């Protein structure tokens, strides 16, 4: 049967879904185990979050993936992502990173528990809670899975809640640049700039619910970055942000957004293609992005461009 150390791993569950002529009917589900309680198990499947009562579980077992990234690869990508989304206020707890940005986005306002916190795990979580309390913010911890599974178990015991599962997805730049049909010469192209225009920031603010001063730091405090924009009849209708971090290896894509009136015209692909070309010219070899699993349209778009899930994470929030 499943144990807490299976959280964060891919499992297959055979569940009882009914009875026919006195015999049980079964259905199988495959996904990442994100929660294991006394009454339910919760999976992150390709179709979304699935909660199965333990009473319906006939059999469950871990399914090791054929090519799960190493712990070192996960740590390196997490650090590349941190450098691509830099919080203005930072601290350290051993190897753990502490980040704050006036509450703007979970990524910039959460601890990253990778490596050794230089103290026992319960004491490390206590220190995280104090660090955020000193800044008048709720304590949050991003738990990359399965890397931070022990941290997740400690947070479960303390009653921390979890935000929706996030997929950290990657693709080789060569594959991304070749994905999809060639661009239509008659279609609008994307313009790249080193600083965001007021119009660009307006669209980003609509996506993220405002832009405090700390947000401008997060968006711009990266050495290698570009802001992409697609204009139609002089109006900005699609945006995106690209960074190159991780010792020059990784293109980080974020804030890919198309205004409602211009959707379903391939403009998100136009933005991504332009940023991929820039990153390749800068020497990058791979791309990554972070997307909520429940954001089906975005996940479908990225799958069509060749992105696959490298690992996942949960943003955990302290009670109260």
From TrEMBL:
It comes from the Bacteria. It holds the Pfam family Rv0428c_C. CDD domains: NAT_SF. Transmembrane segments: none annotated. InterPro entries: Acyl_CoA_acyltransferase (IPR016181), GNAT_dom (IPR000182), Rv0428c-like_C (IPR056935). Residues 187-320 form the N-acetyltransferase domain. This is GNAT family N-acetyltransferase. It comes from Micromonospora cathayae. The lineage of its organism: Bacteria, Bacillati, Actinomycetota, Actinomycetes, Micromonosporales.
């Amino acid at each position: 049967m499943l144990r807490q150390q299976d959280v964060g791993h891919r499992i297959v569950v055979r569940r009882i879904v009914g009875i026919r002529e006195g015999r049980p009917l079964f259905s199988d589900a495959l996904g990442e185990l994100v929660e294991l309680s006394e009454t339910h198990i919760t999976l992150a499947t390709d179709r979304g979050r699935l909660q199965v009562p333990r009473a319906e579980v006939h059999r469950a077992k871990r399914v090791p993936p054929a090519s799960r990234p190493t712990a070192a690869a996960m740590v390196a990508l997490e650090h590349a992502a941190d450098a691509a989304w830099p919080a203005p206020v930072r601290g350290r707890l051993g190897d753990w990173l502490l980040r704050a940005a006036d509450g703007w986005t979970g990524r910039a306002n959460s601890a990253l528990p990778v490596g050794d916190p230089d103290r026992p795990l319960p004491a490390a979580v206590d220190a995280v809670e104090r660090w955020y309390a000193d800044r008048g913010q709720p304590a949050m911890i991003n738990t990359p899975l399965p890397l931070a599974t022990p941290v997740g178990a400690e947070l479960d015991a303390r009653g921390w809640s979890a935000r929706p599962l996030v997929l950290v997805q990657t693709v080789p730049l060569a594959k991304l640049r070749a994905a999809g049909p060639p661009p239509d010469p008659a279609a609008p192209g994307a313009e790249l700039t080193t600083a965001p225009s007021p119009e660009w920031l307006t669209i980003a603010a609509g996506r993220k619910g405002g832009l405090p001063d700390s947000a401008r730091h997060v968006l711009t405090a990266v050495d290698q970055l570009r802001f992409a924009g697609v204009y139609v009849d002089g109006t900005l209708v699609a945006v995106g942000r690209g960074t190159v971090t991780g010792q020059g290896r990784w293109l980080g894509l974020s804030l890919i957004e198309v205004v409602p009136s211009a959707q379903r015209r391939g403009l998100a692909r136009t933005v991504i293609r332009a940023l991929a070309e820039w990153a390749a010219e800068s020497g990058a070899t791979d791309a990554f992005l972070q997307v909520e699993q429940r954001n089906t349209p975005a996940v479908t778009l990225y799958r069509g461009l060749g992105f696959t899930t490298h690992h996942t994470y949960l943003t955990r929030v302290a009670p109260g």
